[in-house]
Amino acid sequence: MIKDKLEYANTYYGISDSLKKGFEWLKNNDLKSLDDGRYQIDNNIYANIQSYETKENAPYEAHREYADIQYMVEGAEKIGVTNYSNCTTVETYNKEKDIEFLNLNQKDSYELINEGEFLVLFPQDAHKPSINPDKKLNVKKVVVKVRL
Prior knowledge:
CATH superfamily: YhcH/YjgK/YiaL
Number of strands: 12
Largest sheet: 6 strands, antiparallel
Structural class: mainly beta
CATH class: Mainly Beta
Helix content: under 10%
Strand order of the largest sheet: 1-10-5-12-3-2
Number of domains: 1
CATH architecture: Sandwich
Shape: globular
Strand content: over 45%
Protein backbone atom coordinates (compact mmCIF):
# COMPACT_ATOMS: atom_id res chain seq x y z
CA MET A 1 0.00 0.00 0.00
CA ILE A 2 1.10 3.53 -0.76
CA LYS A 3 -0.55 6.66 0.66
CA ASP A 4 0.35 10.11 -0.59
CA LYS A 5 -0.89 13.32 -2.21
CA LEU A 6 -1.43 13.41 -5.97
CA GLU A 7 1.09 16.25 -6.30
CA TYR A 8 3.82 13.75 -5.27
CA ALA A 9 2.66 10.86 -7.47
CA ASN A 10 5.67 11.22 -9.77
CA THR A 11 7.70 9.67 -6.93
CA TYR A 12 6.03 6.34 -7.83
CA TYR A 13 6.26 6.50 -11.64
CA GLY A 14 9.17 4.05 -11.64
CA ILE A 15 7.04 1.23 -10.22
CA SER A 16 5.33 0.64 -13.57
CA ASP A 17 4.40 2.45 -16.77
CA SER A 18 0.75 1.60 -16.11
CA LEU A 19 0.75 3.23 -12.67
CA LYS A 20 2.42 6.26 -14.23
CA LYS A 21 -0.34 6.46 -16.88
CA GLY A 22 -3.00 6.17 -14.19
CA PHE A 23 -1.49 8.98 -12.13
CA GLU A 24 -1.07 11.17 -15.22
CA TRP A 25 -4.73 10.63 -16.13
CA LEU A 26 -5.72 11.80 -12.64
CA LYS A 27 -3.48 14.86 -12.92
CA ASN A 28 -4.55 15.82 -16.47
CA ASN A 29 -8.33 15.71 -16.07
CA ASP A 30 -10.76 18.07 -14.33
CA LEU A 31 -12.09 15.34 -12.05
CA LYS A 32 -14.60 17.58 -10.26
CA SER A 33 -16.42 18.21 -13.54
CA LEU A 34 -16.38 14.65 -14.93
CA ASP A 35 -19.57 12.61 -14.56
CA ASP A 36 -19.69 9.38 -12.61
CA GLY A 37 -18.95 6.36 -14.74
CA ARG A 38 -16.20 4.32 -16.36
CA TYR A 39 -13.42 5.95 -18.39
CA GLN A 40 -11.11 3.72 -20.45
CA ILE A 41 -7.52 5.01 -20.29
CA ASP A 42 -5.92 2.24 -22.35
CA ASN A 43 -6.29 -1.54 -22.77
CA ASN A 44 -4.93 -2.20 -19.27
CA ILE A 45 -6.16 0.80 -17.32
CA TYR A 46 -9.57 2.31 -16.62
CA ALA A 47 -11.06 4.70 -14.09
CA ASN A 48 -14.36 4.50 -12.22
CA ILE A 49 -15.67 7.83 -10.96
CA GLN A 50 -18.11 7.40 -8.07
CA SER A 51 -20.17 9.79 -5.95
CA TYR A 52 -21.74 8.33 -2.81
CA GLU A 53 -22.36 8.69 0.91
CA THR A 54 -19.85 7.01 3.23
CA LYS A 55 -21.16 4.20 5.45
CA GLU A 56 -20.68 2.58 8.84
CA ASN A 57 -19.36 -0.73 7.55
CA ALA A 58 -18.49 -2.71 4.43
CA PRO A 59 -16.83 -6.02 3.64
CA TYR A 60 -13.14 -6.27 2.90
CA GLU A 61 -12.27 -6.92 -0.73
CA ALA A 62 -9.19 -7.91 -2.69
CA HIS A 63 -8.22 -8.08 -6.35
CA ARG A 64 -5.81 -10.34 -8.21
CA GLU A 65 -5.40 -8.82 -11.67
CA TYR A 66 -5.56 -5.10 -10.90
CA ALA A 67 -4.07 -2.64 -8.45
CA ASP A 68 -6.29 0.25 -7.33
CA ILE A 69 -5.34 3.90 -7.21
CA GLN A 70 -8.12 5.24 -4.95
CA TYR A 71 -8.10 9.04 -5.24
CA MET A 72 -10.35 11.35 -3.22
CA VAL A 73 -11.72 14.20 -5.36
CA GLU A 74 -14.16 15.65 -2.79
CA GLY A 75 -14.78 14.72 0.83
CA ALA A 76 -12.97 12.18 2.98
CA GLU A 77 -13.32 8.55 4.00
CA LYS A 78 -11.62 5.86 5.99
CA ILE A 79 -10.37 2.74 4.21
CA GLY A 80 -9.57 -0.37 6.21
CA VAL A 81 -6.34 -1.93 4.96
CA THR A 82 -4.68 -5.20 5.93
CA ASN A 83 -2.60 -7.96 4.41
CA TYR A 84 -4.69 -10.50 2.52
CA SER A 85 -3.32 -13.26 4.78
CA ASN A 86 -5.22 -11.69 7.74
CA CYS A 87 -8.58 -12.49 6.11
CA THR A 88 -10.85 -15.41 5.31
CA THR A 89 -12.99 -15.66 2.19
CA VAL A 90 -16.69 -14.79 2.49
CA GLU A 91 -17.50 -14.74 -1.22
CA THR A 92 -15.17 -16.63 -3.56
CA TYR A 93 -13.13 -14.83 -6.18
CA ASN A 94 -15.09 -13.62 -9.21
CA LYS A 95 -12.60 -13.61 -12.09
CA GLU A 96 -14.88 -11.58 -14.39
CA LYS A 97 -15.14 -8.75 -11.83
CA ASP A 98 -11.68 -9.35 -10.31
CA ILE A 99 -13.01 -9.24 -6.75
CA GLU A 100 -13.15 -11.43 -3.68
CA PHE A 101 -15.00 -10.47 -0.50
CA LEU A 102 -13.38 -11.20 2.84
CA ASN A 103 -13.72 -11.12 6.62
CA LEU A 104 -10.90 -9.71 8.69
CA ASN A 105 -9.54 -12.05 11.41
CA GLN A 106 -8.14 -9.27 13.60
CA LYS A 107 -8.81 -5.66 14.66
CA ASP A 108 -9.40 -3.15 11.86
CA SER A 109 -6.71 -0.63 10.94
CA TYR A 110 -7.78 2.40 8.89
CA GLU A 111 -6.22 4.97 6.61
CA LEU A 112 -7.99 8.32 6.26
CA ILE A 113 -7.91 9.78 2.75
CA ASN A 114 -8.77 13.43 2.28
CA GLU A 115 -9.25 15.51 -0.86
CA GLY A 116 -6.15 15.35 -3.02
CA GLU A 117 -4.84 12.13 -1.44
CA PHE A 118 -4.63 8.61 -2.84
CA LEU A 119 -4.01 5.04 -1.77
CA VAL A 120 -2.44 2.51 -4.11
CA LEU A 121 -3.68 -0.93 -3.16
CA PHE A 122 -1.98 -4.03 -4.56
CA PRO A 123 -3.34 -7.63 -4.59
CA GLN A 124 -1.90 -8.37 -1.14
CA ASP A 125 -3.75 -5.34 0.28
CA ALA A 126 -7.24 -6.37 1.35
CA HIS A 127 -9.27 -3.20 1.80
CA LYS A 128 -12.60 -1.94 3.10
CA PRO A 129 -13.47 1.35 1.35
CA SER A 130 -16.21 3.96 1.80
CA ILE A 131 -16.22 4.10 5.62
CA ASN A 132 -17.37 7.17 7.58
CA PRO A 133 -14.45 9.17 8.95
CA ASP A 134 -16.51 10.45 11.91
CA LYS A 135 -19.93 10.92 10.37
CA LYS A 136 -21.56 10.23 7.01
CA LEU A 137 -20.11 12.36 4.23
CA ASN A 138 -20.87 12.80 0.55
CA VAL A 139 -17.74 12.03 -1.44
CA LYS A 140 -16.53 11.90 -5.01
CA LYS A 141 -13.78 9.37 -5.60
CA VAL A 142 -11.92 7.97 -8.59
CA VAL A 143 -10.68 4.39 -8.56
CA VAL A 144 -8.13 3.83 -11.31
CA LYS A 145 -7.80 0.11 -12.04
CA VAL A 146 -4.31 -0.81 -13.28
CA ARG A 147 -3.76 -4.30 -14.72
CA LEU A 148 -0.64 -5.89 -13.25
